[in-house]
Design brief:
Keywords: ATP-binding, Nucleotide-binding, Transport. This protein has 254 residues and is of the alpha/beta class. The protein contains ten helices and ten strands. The chain has one domain: 3-Layer(aba) Sandwich (Rossmann fold), CATH 3.40.50.300. The structure holds adenosine-5'-triphosphate (ATP).
Length: 254
């Protein structure tokens, strides 16, 4: 944990895609073991900020980043940062479920295998535990060798969460994890997010304000690349300090 009580802190972050500035002077501190939602209109930089937290923007050509991102005590943008180790500690779940075209078991065992776990007994235990934490075990326990592609969209997304949990991350980044799912599957993922904060820090990007209000403890409202306001979710929705936030949460634009 950091001196300010956070697990992850961005300081004066600017990000440019070529000439276009997508983040402007963003500073934010993410509290541990809580769910933090990033909301704001399309194109305001939510996903860009999320991707900075595990250096996924490094893969984008022509990107330039200024500022610091501290994870615990180290700067993840520093030369000493081991990206593979970072992505193990800060996992990511994407908008569209993206299971590998292999068995349910192998999807979950993939990460631990990459990180050197060889014992079948240990892998069995990790697969079972991760699927239980992702609230999927009861639905797949008798068909672990079946293809992950045969699962429903909601099950696939929970499998992707299990795959992320299998390498024991500390932070889970979720980029619109329910946007491809129906309401029942969405509510399962939302319940799961609530359970996850016992053991993990969750940062979720969502278009859906009701979802942010339901699942998060803290909310950051972004607009045109800036973090306009950040605070406890109830305060952001019920008593925002900034007029822009108020206009957005009351549905005056979006
Ligand atoms: N790889 C990229 N190359 C160039 N520009 C990009 C890239 N990714 C995002 N952008 C631009 O950066 C800005 C912020 O995009 P970002 O995806 O972070 O916004 P967002 O708030 O997550 O939007 P949405 O809610 O629509 O997903 C947008 O103007 C977008 O067009």
């Amino acid at each position: 944990m950091q001196k300010n009580g956070s697990i992850l802190t961005a300081e004066h972050l600017n990000l440019y895609y070529g000439d276009k500035q997508a983040l402007s002077d963003v500073s934010i501190s993410i509290p541990p073991n809580r769910v933090t939602a990033l909301i704001g209109p399309s194109g305001c930089g939510k996903s860009t900020l999320l991707r900075c937290f595990n250096r996924l923007n490094d893969l984008v050509e022509d990107v330039r980043i200024e500022g610091r991102i501290l994870f615990e005590d180290g700067d993840i943008r520093g030369p000493d940062c081991d990206i593979v180790a970072l992505r193990k500690r800060i996992g990511m779940v994407f908008q569209k479920p993206n299971p590998f075209p292999s068995s349910i078991y192998d999807n979950v065992a993939y990460g631990p295998r990459v990180h050197g776990v060889r014992s079948r007994e240990r892998l069995d235990a990790i697969v079972q535990e991760s699927l239980k934490k992702a609230a999927l075990w009861d639905e797949v326990a008798d068909r672990l060798d079946d293809s992950a592609m045969g699962l429903s969209g909601g099950q696939q997304q929970r499998l992707c969460i299990a795959r992320t949990l299998a390498v024991e991350p500390e932070v889970i980044l979720m980029d619109e994890p329910c946007s491809a799912l129906d309401p029942i599957a969405t509510s399962k993922i939302e319940n799961l997010i609530d359970d996850l904060k016992e053991g993990y820090t969750v940062v979720i990007v969502t278009h859906n304000m009701q979802q942010a209000a339901r699942v998060s403890d803290y909310t950051g409202f972004m607009y045109l690349g800036r973090l306009v306001e950040f605070g406890p979710t109830a305060r952001i929705f019920e008593n925002p300090q900034e007029e822009l936030t108020n206009n957005y949460v009351t549905g005056r634009f979006g």
